[in-house]
Amino acid sequence: MISSGELPAGSWLREAILAQRIGVSRTPIREALNRLAAEGLVELSRNKGAQVVSFSPEDVAGLYDVRAGFEPHAALLSVPNLTDDDVEQLASLSGRMEAIVEAGGDMDELSTLNSEFHGIFMERCGNRHFAIALQAVMRPAVVAHTFRKYSREAIRRSMQHHAELVAAAEARDGEWAEAVMRTHILAARNAAGANPSTR
């Protein structure tokens, strides 16, 4: 609900309401809120409760800086480990995202597919500890990231990068994928208005 924007920045997260809405007891809700707080998505206040974090422009820029340092390395490590099914899934996700963009479709769905696409590179990097650390970085970045801020040109550029990542994956060329992923993340940083020159 946070990732989709259904619970936007600043929303108060009431345990009882969430428990009723999701259909569970308050205990797993409390555990989930503690985990989300540890991941930097929720702020816990002893007197006020839990609230979805609001990211400042500096926060967003910092998240992209970390992604630009780590996610290209995940691409480098993962490409040799990709199965034919993985490559087919990457191509399918890329195609579905392009179709949404061409149709002027649902940006929330586009974000969901984008997360799945990037998740494949993380899951296949072959280093469980690195993948866990990267997921901890990626989760707040996904929440802060929104295609709604992108210009039409920036969205098209993002889709082109995805297509090139698929081509690198098909060629099993990790260095190519690493270079494209770095370009992709830096372009996303710029599209989100988090360019260092604008800080």
List keywords for this structure.
3-stranded antiparallel β-sheet, Four Helix Bundle (Hemerythrin (Met), subunit A), 2 domains, Arc Repressor Mutant, subunit A, 8 helices, globular, mainly alpha
Model description:
By secondary structure, this protein is mainly alpha-helical. The chain folds into 2 domains: 12-52, Arc Repressor Mutant, subunit A (Orthogonal Bundle), CATH 1.10.10; 57-198, Four Helix Bundle (Hemerythrin (Met), subunit A). It is 67% helix and 5% strand. The chain has 8 helices and 3 strands. The chain has helices spanning 15-22, 26-38, 57-78, 84-103, 107-123, 128-144, 152-170, 174-191; strands at residues 12-13, 42-45, 49-52. The chain has a 3-stranded antiparallel beta sheet. Helix 3 (57-78) packs antiparallel against helix 8 and helix 4 packs antiparallel against helix 5 (107-123). It is globular. The two termini are 29 Å apart.
